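Practice problem: GPI-anchored cell wall organization protein Ecm33
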Amino acid sequence: MAAMKYFVPALAVAGRAAAQCSVAATSTIQNAGDASALASCSTFSGSIAIATGTTGEIAIDGVQEITGSLSATNVEELTGITGDSLETIGGTFNLDTVQILSTLNFPRLTDVRAIEWNALAGLQGLVFTSGIQMASTLSIQNTQLNTLDGINLQTAETVYIANNDYLNDITMQIGNVSDSLVLTSNGRNVSANFPNLIWGNVMTFRNCSTVSVPSLASTNGSLGFYSNFFQSLVAPNLTMVGGDLSFANNDDMTNITMPQLQTVTGGLQIANNTELNAIGFSSLETVGGAVSFVGSYETVSLPELSNVRGAFRLASTSDISSACTKFRAMHGNSGVIRGNFVCRSGSGSSGTSTSNGDDSSDGGSSSSSSSGSSSSSTDGTSGASTVYVSGATALMGVVAAIFGML
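Answer key — structure tokens:
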């Protein structure tokens, strides 16, 4: 890493209306006077770091562009950073462990290559009047922010927003996320609103009270919803998930609506959503991996399902015997469900087996025969009976591998 050096007077270029300033290495600001010396620079070519011993507020006024990064790390007495003219930061806007920082005022800032903020215990709001619209990376962690007003990205590669306990509104007009979008452990009532989000790669939503993705059409990677607080998830335009689609431990969720979803390239998992009574995907045709539905749901509707390349498992404490019968018929010779089939119903239902197998990995036992006789048994822990159809022997290892979450 290039050696840090203290700020030297800006180099004015004679004959120009605005000075051009440049340094070979990162310049370090120690006080307000160092910052004021930059006022004649419209463009600062290089990076600026705020020294750890800096106190009070630093005003980087007059500068319109910083071609490198702007950073402050472990600056214990820094209360604010402002810049009345700054529009562009060509590198990273990095703030890490600046505990009493309470003011970020950049009314004209719109373009930053990367925002990386962490451990800003005093930062509750932003003054970004024009709004940051361009950033390839946005990472905001462990702040006191209660809103992201002033950050309204149009596109991004990575968005990671986590552990901001007072953040209750995440709203952006972003249209696509090419790498990953992760929201986790923010305010208890956080609403995640992405009205223009059409496409993403990997997207994960945790601990959200509302998730709104009305325009989402497809993902290249996985889409997961874990331990959220919303009652309903609606994605009216989603047609394809390019990886796994997962809903797990969303205790208040009563409804999943994805009327146009046709393809899940990976696995489809719905598990331990205690208030979810019905599972239905009216247009779903293909699941490239395994299907696993576990919980207390009562009905399953997949009217267009024609190709499941992995295993298929239904397990509910409610009576799902009719679903067991329906999907068992889609296994084996029908070619719809190609992997192992397991169905467990809390009603004491029974089913027909197509080959020998062992269901002991599900917490109980069942007998099955290749002659097509029915088999059922009582689960020692839940009282549920097992309906089991297997396409292979040694089921315990297969199920454990595919459904290790149970």
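Discussion: DSSP finds three helices and 38 strands in the chain. Students who identified this feature from the tokens alone can consider the problem solved.
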